[in-house]
């Protein structure tokens, strides 16, 4: 649980710090090109989910996030695995980072727009969705959870092992 909590706190802190720096220093109409154009810093506000899906239903995202936070809290009580703590901590931190925007940013509570600023390969989501640190934490955390599941690593620290059936012996007469 300590890994989960520490990871979540760090994820939220970095996300909010980067969002603060972005809103204070980036102009929405002037993307900043870095790493030779691999990354652009393009300040945008998103009322929807990834790729602005669901922009008309902004209120649903905080509700879903609160359910996710509750499920992670329930799972945390039986958590005994460092990799699972890291995975769930990243998901929790990412969810809370964006929840803060949904609750406290304009246009108002449960309708706030998430601050996004990282655009890959071209400015302003021309090639890929613009995202933020919280989105990155969510994505990495979910990918790690899938990998842990696929490799049989359990949240209680045990590991499932596939027992291969021994080939059937042929009877000789």
From TrEMBL:
Gene Ontology CC: one annotated term: plasma membrane
Subcellular location: Cell membrane
Pathway membership: Protein modification; lipoprotein biosynthesis (signal peptide cleavage)
GO molecular function, one term: aspartic-type endopeptidase activity
UniProt catalytic activity: Release of signal peptides from bacterial membrane prolipoproteins. Hydrolyzes -Xaa-Yaa-Zaa-|-(S,diacylglyceryl)Cys-, in which Xaa is hydrophobic (preferably Leu), and Yaa (Ala or Ser) and Zaa (Gly or Ala) have small, neutral side chains
Gene Ontology BP annotations: proteolysis
Keywords, alphabetical: Aspartyl protease, Cell membrane, Hydrolase, Membrane, Protease, Transmembrane, Transmembrane helix
EC code(s) of this entry: 3.4.23.36
Ranges that cross the membrane: 57-75, 82-100, 129-150
InterPro entries: Peptidase_A8
List of catalytic residues: 116, 135
Cross-referenced HAMAP family: LspA
Similarity remark: Belongs to the peptidase A8 family.
Purpose of the protein: This protein specifically catalyzes the removal of signal peptides from prolipoproteins.
NCBIfam families according to UniProt: lspA
Record-given protein name: Lipoprotein signal peptidase
Species of origin: Actinoplanes xinjiangensis
Lineage: Bacteria, Bacillati, Actinomycetota, Actinomycetes, Micromonosporales
Gene: lspA
């Amino acid at each position: 649980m300590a890994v989960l909590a520490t990871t979540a706190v760090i994820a939220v802190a970095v996300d909010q710090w980067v969002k603060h720096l972005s809103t204070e220093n980036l102009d929405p109409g002037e993307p900043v090109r870095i790493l030779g154009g691999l990354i652009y810093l393009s300040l945008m506000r998103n009322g929807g989910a990834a790729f602005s899906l669901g922009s008309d239903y902004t209120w649903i995202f905080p509700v879903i996030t609160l359910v996710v936070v509750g499920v992670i809290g329930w799972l945390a009580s039986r958590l005994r695995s460092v990799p699972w703590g890291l995975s769930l901590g990243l998901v929790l931190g990412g969810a809370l980072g964006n929840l803060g925007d949904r609750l406290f940013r304009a246009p108002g509570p449960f309708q706030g727009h998430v601050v996004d600023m990282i655009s890959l390969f071209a400015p302003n989501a021309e090639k890929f969705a613009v995202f933020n640190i919280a989105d990155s934490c969510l994505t990495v955390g979910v990918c790690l959870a899938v990998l842990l599941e696929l490799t049989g690593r359990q949240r209680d620290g045990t590991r499932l092992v596939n027992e291969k059936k021994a080939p059937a012996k042929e009877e000789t007469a």
